[in-house]
Every structure is written in C-alpha cells, then in structure tokens.
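We treat protein structure as text, and this decision shapes the records that our systems exchange. Because each token names a local backbone shape, the row as a whole describes the fold. For reference, a complete record is included directly beneath this paragraph.
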Amino acid sequence: MDSQSPKINYCLYARKSSESDERQAMSIDSQIKEMQTLANREGLHIKEIREESHSAKLSGQRPVFNQLLIDIEQGELSGIITWAPDRLSRNAGDLGKIVDLMDQEKLVQIKTYSQTFSNNPNEKFLLMILCSQAKLENDNRGVNVKRGLRNKCEIGIRPGVAPIGYKNILKENRISIVELDPERAPVVKEMFYKVAYKGFSGRMVKKWLDDVKFTTKNGCRLALSKVYFVLQNPFYYGEFKYGDTWYKGTHPPLISKQTFEKVQIQLQVAPRQWNKQLFPFKKICICGSCGGSVTAEIKYRRTRANIVNSHIYYHCNRIKKYDCPEPYITEQELIKQLIGYLPEIRLNTSYLMQEFKIEIKRLQNLKFAVMSDQSSRFEMTPHNNAGSQIKMEYTQTQTDMLRDYLLHILQFGSPEERIKILKGVNSRFKLIDRQLNIQ
C-alpha cells in the first residue's frame, strides 16, 4: 500500500446464516481467523470485528450490517474485510448501498480472501456480478425447493413433520414417507370417536388425554389448542392441503371421512347470545346414568339443498362423570315422552290456574282450543279473606283442564312460555338411555 495513501480503518465483518442454503459456509470463528491472518500478512489495520448470524437474502434485515453502513457513512470506518462478497450481500438493496458508499468515496476498499474491490469501474462491476450471482443462486434454489415440494405433494406425501399419531420414515432413496405411530395412533383414533359418537367436547377430550397420561413424542401433554387442531385436521382421513391445493395422501387413514365430518358438526359452536337461548326442560330432568344435571345445546346441520336446520339436543352435562355414556335426545322426542306422562305429573294447581287466567285474557283463541266444551264445567268461586286475596276451589275437571293447558304449551308454546309453565310441574324425571322416567 502506498505510504502517501490515507490510512484505511477496516472492519472485519463475519456472517453466518442459520438457513440451509449456507450450511457449507465457513463458521464465523473460521472466517475471523482467516481474515486476521490475511490482515497481518498485508499490514491492514482492523479497527473493529463485527459478526452476526443472519440471512442476507432480504434487504435491510441485518442490524449489525446496517450499523456498519451507518458508521461508514459517518466516516468512522472506511474499509471492510470479509471472507467473500456473498458475506456482504445476497440482495440488490444492500448491494446498492455498498456501491453507493464507494461512489461517494466513503467506502475506500473491500478486501476478501481472494479479491480486492476499490472505487474503480471494473472492480465495482465485478463486485456487483459476484453479489448478483449469489442472489441468482438463492432465487433458483427457492424455485427448485418449491418445485420439489409440489412434486412430493403430487405423489401423496405431505412435506414437513407428520402430525401426532403418525411418524416420518426415511427410506433408502432418502424420501421421507409417513406411517402410523403404533403407540399414539389408537389414542388419536379414540379422540375422534369420543367426539363423533359420544358427544365429547374438546375440553372433555383434553381431560381424558390427561387422565390416560397421553404425551407427544417430546413427552409433553397435549394442549387444548392442539386437541382442536388434531380434531380439525383432514390428514387423518387421508387428505391434506398444501398451499391452496388439496391432495390425496398415500399414508394410511386413521378414520373415515364420515367420522371426520361428524366430528366437525359436533365441534360447531353457535355464537353465544346471553339470555336468548332458552332450554326449558333442563331443570326438570337429571341424568339417570350418573345423577348429574342435564344441559342442552343447539346443533346446526346443512342439508343437500344447502339449507341450514337447527336442532336442540338434551344430554348429561358430564360434570360428575366426564365419560358418562348417556346419549343425546332431541327436544322433540323429550316433549313427546313428557306428554305421555301428563296423567301422572304432579301439578302446582294454584300457580298454573293463575297463569291460565292470564292466558285466557291474553289469547281468546286459546279458550276455544283448550277449554272447548269443558269451559262450562268448572267454576272459579271467589271468597273474600282478611287479606283481600282470592281463593280458588279446584275440582278434578279443572285439573284435567290444566293438563290440557300444559299439553298445549308443550306442543305449541315458545321457550319462554314453556319455562314459565314448567314452574307449575312438581314432578321430576330421570333421563336414561334416551328414555324419561318419572320419579
């Protein structure tokens, strides 16, 4: 170097990407060692050593490199020593900043293991060619990887780690295929069956998995979010989606598509409308299998004509026993059986008579529909009391009339009307194997 030339303050920049395209590049320690040897041999002054592990594919994403450019811009550094041009840039944006600093004569020299680039047209042109070549390699590699993944999907093999219940097997031709995990596949299959045919919710499945001490391959419990992810993954019946395309997998299916669709229906949750969804028959029934309370929910089914129908189902809330085998019963079937018990039901006649009088005043047509010819067969006789209250004298005919009134509300009433009228029913029922039994 000419003794009259200004002293160049070099920064030794070493970079190693963690991405697979640079696995063969030298480690950061090796780069630093080689470039320090070069600097000592040629008498170059290294003011600082900076290193980072970051990909250079995208512009402006490397904090250490960005600060290096700022320091050169401010005149604190004037040269760079690095192992190869692709350590500085694999994208057009960062390359443009480097060349711009050389044009401004703020970056005097770039020194690599085998080449030197100064502020002259030929060396800058060569630098741009070498960095552009690195970018071309990256772009081509990305295209080839995507093509390889697409070909893998087309032959029925989903790229990536197999979902729980399956395992990746590497064949002699270095192609990874997917096979059933004999330890976990039966448990995952049982998850689907519990939801599809026993009415389990995601939380109930999670509790069951914890009780049987089920773990992933890493020995971890399955999180609730992962439970739902498994139950909604079509991979288990033999198909998978990669990108925007569906593929038929060559892996052995764990369940049928019919079971998968039943699970998706079971997992559908209607938007909560507080104080709007009323289920009148919850309080008069208990589960006959475990003695727990009975709850209800609305399910939506889409017909072939693309019409969505709603159905109300009553079942054990499974709080006492999460694996209670009690099946679901529709509200229509429950009402039908309840009507069969009308002659045996114990009534709160005073309450029902009060509601009945209000109903008569409100709806005149109910008088003709329910009372018919019996309206003249009973009499409400008022008696003045000290408290100015009215007493009712009830006959057997009036009780029959109230049962007709109850029948009418059960068949044609709204949920609100059913809730109100059922307060006058003193009998309670057990629900077991979809059958009501009066207590």
